[in-house]
Amino acid sequence: MVATRWKCPDCHELRSPKTYQRHQKYGCPSLRKHASKLRRAAEATLTRLRRLGLVARSPPPHHQSLQLNRQHSPNTLPPPAFHEHLHLSASPVVDHEMQPPELYHYDSQFDTPGAGPGPSSRDQSPRFAPYNPNDPAEEESDNNKDPLAALPWMYGLAPHNYYELNAQQELLRKGGLQLPNYDRLTVQAFNYKVDTDISGRAYSKLPRAFPDRLADLPTEPGLQRRIDKISAFGAQAIDCCINSCVAYTGVYQWLESCPWCGEARYKPHRKNPICRVPRRTFRYLPLIPRLINLFRNPPMAESLRYRSQRQPQPDTLSDIFDGHYYCQLLQEFVYLGGTRLGHQFFSNNTDIALGLSTDGVGPFKTRKQQCWPLILINYNLPPSIRTRLENILCLGVIPGPQTPKELDTFLEPLIDELEELARGVPAFDAANRHPFLLHAYLIVAFGDMPAVAKMMEMKGPNGKFPCRACKIHGLRARHGPHPNTNYVPLSRPFDDEPHAIRRYDPQNLPLRTHAECLKQAMWVEEARNDAEEGRRSLRTGINGLSPLARVPGLLLPVSFPHDFMHLIFENIIPTLFDLWTRSANFETFGSGTEDYLLDSDVWTKIAKACPLACNNIPYAFGCRVPDPKKKRAELTAEARLLLATLLGPALLRGRLTNQKYYRHFINLVRLINMCIDFEITLDDVDIIRKGFAQWVKDYEKYYYMDNPARLSVCTLPLHALLHIADDIEAMGPVWAYWAFPMERFCGALTRASKSRRFPYSSINRRVLQLAQLSQIKLVYGLTKELELDEHRENIRRGIQYNHYTDLVFVNPSRTLTLQRSLQTKISKHLGPVIGVPVADVSAALVNQPLTVWGRMQRLDKSLAEIVVGGDVIRGAMVVPGNDTMRDASHIRFHSKLSRWRWDRPHTVEFPDETLSYGRAEMFVVVEADLVASLNVPDPRTYVIAVISAFPFLRHHNDADLIEYRLLSGNYAGAEVVDATKIDCLIGRVTTEHRGSFVLERTSVVGRMDMLDVTVETD
User: Fold this and answer.
1) Which end of the chain has the lower number of beta carbons within 10 A, N or C?
2) Region (Disordered) spans which residues (predicted)?
């Protein structure tokens, strides 16, 4: 039974459970000396911002101050400059006031009073001394130069740290740490067990299956004990509620029962009743040892230089480091709890940028039971490898089956480590072979809306002020199946509340700021009772101070951008299709006579065409799209992305009764493609901002119609589209912080073998073993040796010819004599190129065996300017396809023969090249020896592509679609071009009314190693 009153240990008053939680978390309002570490940090931040003139000293805002007292759009004032919105100064902030000693709390109960340097020595310390640019002593002279200026990596290192870590240099010179021979079998067995995820029973059968070879294989319990010692890495057991309400950390560390559900923390030991053991634990995987070990591996240490070595392009956003927020951080000093540290953000090339993500996942693919993985993305790694599963840093999995009530209590160990990393941790750089002080900063946190609301301590999607980025006021849908849900339309002419805004300007919303979030959060937690706390929380949309506000480098709400994956592909796209088909949540929506509705038979035909079209789309474009009508539950976010951006424009063309809905959908597709592009210019950001503003206004006009009965279409994800441009401007392209890596990690967890009785223990063991295996590979340099998968070369093994350095020709190959008609076409193409009469070339080709290749791969450059393998194009005549193979033979190429005549079968030859489309048949090599026989000076090898082109092409400007038509079901005659004229692979889709369209890949999908687990290479 849950107690109705709890005695607060500070004020000694009986409080309700909710008030008790608030007192424990934030301190008693009546006893300010007991202010928590979190509140002290927030107050110090506000003090610094007030000195900069960025925060008024007015009391916390009430209902009227939230800009709800206007009858018109709030567009009278221009939006603030970006650095004002961030509340960051253009120059480094100088603030050296220390916290008064009376602010003591049991967060610091293990600190030794009087230990450390006194105030006088602190003033003389370069770490705390204020910087005065007008002081002549600050001017550097030839006789007073910093002796460490030539060795910047030594700043902050204590002498004993330097000598201890410098011993690793001698170890590295001798080849690094070597695994003893008697442990090699142990590591190999552990690697096999973890990689294949076999059960303990299957593992125990291996010695009996191979008695002559594996007789010495260690048993499973002995294997894990030895791996714990070899890896020197283990999980930290943290007690948590049996219902996963809270973790007993921070202010809850001494509680005997859960402050939410009242369940006991401990149970009697099974063998010794006098002893008690926790009923459930959260296994936290420490971050600092893993970051240190990353730099102990020379190849990995070199990869971690990506952040500092990349060259940003002006007015272009190509990664999170091009966002305005990161650029502003480079000019700021690091503050920790109100104290300025002696360095700026990312002042060293070894400093690491991190991103936090979490989400709920059902171990058995059901929402009834969920656990919550916590992962970190290492942004110092190049984009092509940073989201691979082996490079994702898992901090642990919050056990289920229920959602945690206070997510921040599980983040407490991470916050402590981040504070330590802000000060600096001694480490060794194996790439440059010297010790240094490692810093790491959490600059972004992302996930779906409920997860981010928990991290930010906000009301979330169903609050009165549900948006985390602005203060738009939510409206209840008085009519419909969800009368208690708040919706956020821009237009609300029927809102009868006094001083209500009747229409919001989508480009001038009342944005939240960091200082305002802190002030309102402290105002909420200062409430004297539950009722007052509820009223204040309702008026602000904030539940309290987020512990992440202690973390240097995080800014509310800028560091919490909207997740594009959940926003678009899990909400907006499904909502549109549900509206058109009157299904799911909109089955009873409206009158059923709206002109945007799709006929049931039409929707069935469109749905059936989706899986059929995937056979004509290369696997590099993405996963297969299932039937969205019959297999709705199998639609992943990636499948919806492909459905919207690739298949949707073609399959929906001419299907909606009123074309304004199709044009509206096409405008969304264009905006999506701009957002998920690798690189976004600042001009594109402005187009995205205006484009989404107009799209949302049109959406409300078409589907909402200012009708209170139709309010349920104005969801929070729809409103969040208005903040996408701000997120891109602040944090870079959306692919840098969308939730696809989180979904991949969750997918890997659900596929792992689990105990039905103890699923969360199995998951904890799994993530620990993966982390231990990663540490062993890094520390002992065994990454290649322990690789069990068949190595798939990103660049295929084949032949490269001179003058074709960006092309690789791959088996199968043939040596054969070409048909006479094809010899003639090659002669007509090659003669003018080498300056030899066509007749002479034709004569040389007669009965001449030539090498013919069946595949060709294009080589591209990654964002890090590294040559990587691109599209592999199949020659259909040499490598014929089948019904189950996804087609990779149709291409876009450059030709002087124009087929952009829809009603004329004849081609037109132009002096300049134009785009054309068709099917690659083979790749013919004309060797240099043959060219030399024609008395050509400086002969070289030529590779000629034989292509069957589409005979008819036309472009639809309204949807940017290319339609093609065959001639009586046949391609045009063979056309020959130089192999370098081939651009890329294309896909194809044929609609039910016999229209055929070209599908071109214009987005990030398929061009980045982020979805490799979900793509089937069939």
Assistant:
1) N
2) 56-83, 104-146
Radius of gyration of the chain (CA): 32
What stretches of 212-312 show up as alpha helix (H) in DSSP? Answer: 220-231, 288-296, 298-303, 306-309
| Residue 880 falls inside a structural domain | yes
* Residue-level pLDDT at 769: 93
Q: How far apart are CA 664 and CA 575, in angstroms?
A: 14
Residues 278 and 255: their CA atoms lie apart, in Å, by 12
pTM for the structure as a whole = 0.85
Q: Let me know if residue 47 belongs to a domain.
A: no
Q: Which residues pair with 284 in a beta bridge?
A: 236
What is the pLDDT, as a whole number, of residue 97? 35
Please choose, from the candidates 769, 874, 858, 869, the residue with its C-alpha nearest in 3D space to the C-alpha of residue 806.
Answer: 858
Token pair, residue 614, equals 């995937």
The list of the chain residues with pLDDT below 50 reads 1-3, 32-34, 58-143, 1006-1018
Q: Which of 507, 525, 545 is the last residue of a domain?
A: 545
Residues whose CB is less than 8 angstroms from the CB of residue 340 and which lie 6 or more positions away in sequence, other chains included: 93, 94, 95, 96, 128, 333, 334
Print the domain residue range for 513: 53-86+458-545
Q: In whole angstroms, give the CA distance from residue 192 to residue 566.
A: 35
Task: Retrieve residue 134's tokens.
Answer: 């007008």
Q: Give yes or no for a cis peptide into 401 (omega within 30° of 0).
A: yes
Q: What is the residue type of 148? A: L
Rounded Cα distance between 201 and 338, Å, is 55
Place of tokens 């995080």: 554
Residue 740, token pair as written in the block = 């696809």
Residue of 620, 786, 744, 669 whose CA lies nearest to 1014? 744
E strands along 320-381, which residues? 333-336, 339-344, 352-358, 372-378
What does the alpha-carbon distance between residue 167 and residue 145 come to, in Å, rounded to a whole number? 28
What is the structure's pLDDT at 82?
43
837 in a structural domain: yes
Determine phi and psi for 487, rounding to 5 degrees: -125, 160
Using CA atoms, how far apart are residues 49 and 556, in angstroms rounded to an integer? Answer: 14
Strands (E), 676-743: 680-681
Identify the burial level of 369 via C-beta atoms within 10 angstroms of its C-beta, where 0-12 means exposed, 13-18 middle and 19 or more buried: middle
Phi, psi angles (nearest 5°) of residue 231? -80, -25
Q: Where are the beta strands (DSSP E) in 660-785?
A: 680-681
How far apart CA 574 and CA 584 sit, in angstroms, is 9
Report the C-alpha gap between 344 and 347 in whole angstroms: 5
Whole-number pLDDT of residue 480 = 64
Query: Backbone phi, then psi, for 157, in 5-degree steps?
Result: -80, 130
Assess contact for 475 and 43: CB atoms under 8 A: no
Of 905, 892, 893, the closest CA to residue 966 belongs to 905
DSSP class of residue 125 equals: -
pLDDT at 53: 65
Task: Output b/e per residue, 660-696; b: 16+ Cβ within 10 A.
Answer: ebbebbbbbbbbbebbbbbebbeebbebbbebbbebb
The closest alpha carbon to 598, from 999, 1000, 992, belongs to: 992
pLDDT of the residue at 789: 76
Count the Cβ atoms, other than its own, within 10 Å of residue 424. Answer: 22
Q: Is 281 helix (H, G, I), strand (E, B) or coil?
A: strand
CB 338 within 8 A of CB 47: yes
Q: Which of 340, 540, 342, 358 is nearest to 442 (CA)?
A: 358
Among 998, 1005, 916, which Cα is nearest to 962's?
998
Final residue of a structural domain among 545, 576, 606: 545
Please give the tally of structural domains in the chain.
3
Q: How far does Cα 153 stand from its chain's mean position?
A: 31
* Confidence (pLDDT) at 874: 95
Residue 249 falls inside a structural domain: yes
Residue 31: which region, alpha, beta or left (left: phi > 0; alpha: psi -120 to 50)?
beta
Contacts with 472 (C-beta within 8 Å, 6 or more apart), sequence order = 465, 466, 488, 504, 509, 510, 719
